[in-house]
Amino acid sequence: xxxxxxxxxxxxxxxxxxxxxxxxxxxxxxxxxxxxxxxxxxxxxxxxxxxxxxxxxxxxxxxxxxxxxxxxxxxxxxxxxxxxxxxxxxxxxxxxxxxxxxxxxxxxxxxxxxxxxxxxxxxxxxxxxxxx
Length: 132
Known about the structure:
The protein has helices at 2-16, 21-44, 47-61, 80-104, 108-128; strands spanning 68-69, 72-73.
């Protein structure tokens, strides 16, 4: 139920406001900061840092918009880039949720596994869509 409400809010927000390059940069910086918080949480064994980073990561991963090509947003359901970006968003969201759950349960190795998976999703997206 919460996810449905979040999606409805996100869709209504993006229906009225254009997602700019500055918005994308702000989301990417927030996600990078969240990953740093999670890593710090592992180093200091801090559940607070892990939970905070996981929440921020999930919030910003779901607000990212499809990549842009010049001034034109890539066609929604028919382009590889759009579908790939959405798939990466879902994977990041899922792994961030699992990371927090596993860490809270005391299974730090599985939590680190999910952290690594998130990093792989980030790298894959940047490699394929951002043309690193």
